[in-house]
């Protein structure tokens, strides 16, 4: 996969996050039509916001999302927007979800990921001292 940097007025960035979202009480509800609709909603919302989904896997009791975003978007904003939007739409379209106190837990996992390892970055920074 080619490296695709995001270019804006004064920045060039490559910010990638791995998120894990879990339904409330880790219920195994992300299956069948609900899982397919969740996937479609995430693709739709990310396209609207200009975010690129690199990988998405919906499991019965959690989902993994690997996403590239702009540098002006914090990870907590990504989680808040995607979980809030999907919860609102899915609870409206799938009435059996209304019995749950919430669709998603308030917590989430997030990890940063780029195209190079931390060690490579450390070596690059250390090498800058020797450049003219």
| N-C termini distance | 33 Å
Q: Could you list the spans in which at least 5 consecutive residues all have pLDDT below 50?
A: none
**Would you count the extended β strands for me?**
6
Task: Tell me the major beta sheet.
Answer: 4 strands, antiparallel
Order of helices and strands: EEEHEEHEH
Plain-language structure description:
With 132 residues, this protein is an alpha+beta fold. The chain contains three helices and six strands. The chain has helices at residues 32-49, 75-93, 118-127, and strands spanning 6-7, 12-13, 15-21, 52-59, 62-69, 109-113. The strands form two sheets. Strands 4-5-3-6 form a four-stranded antiparallel sheet, with helices on one face. A hairpin with a 2-residue loop joins strand 4 (52-59) and strand 5 (62-69). Helix 1 (32-49) crosses helix 2. 15% of the residues are buried.
Layout of secondary structure:
Elements: E1 6-7, E2 12-13, E3 15-21, H1 32-49, E4 52-59, E5 62-69, H2 75-93, E6 109-113, H3 118-127
Antiparallel strand pairs: 1-2, 3-5, 3-6, 4-5
Helix pairs in contact: 1-2
How would you concisely characterize the structure shown here?
The protein has 132 residues and is α+β, with helices and mostly antiparallel strands.
List keywords for this structure.
132 residues; 6 strands; 24% strand; four-stranded antiparallel β-sheet
């Amino acid at each position: 996969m080619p490296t695709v940097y995001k270019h804006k007025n004064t920045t060039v960035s490559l910010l990638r996050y791995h998120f894990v979202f879990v339904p409330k009480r880790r219920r195994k509800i992300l299956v069948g039509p609900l899982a397919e609709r969740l996937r479609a909603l995430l693709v739709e919302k990310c396209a609207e916001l200009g975010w690129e989904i690199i990988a998405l896997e919906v499991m019965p009791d959690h989902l993994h999302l690997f996403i590239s975003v702009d540098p002006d978007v914090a990870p907590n904003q990504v989680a808040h927007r995607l979980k809030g939007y999907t919860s609102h739409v899915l609870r409206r379209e799938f009435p059996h979800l209304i019995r749950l106190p919430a669709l998603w837990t308030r917590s989430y996992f997030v990890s940063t990921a780029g195209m190079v390892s931390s060690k490579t970055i450390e070596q690059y920074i250390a090498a800058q001292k020797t450049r003219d």
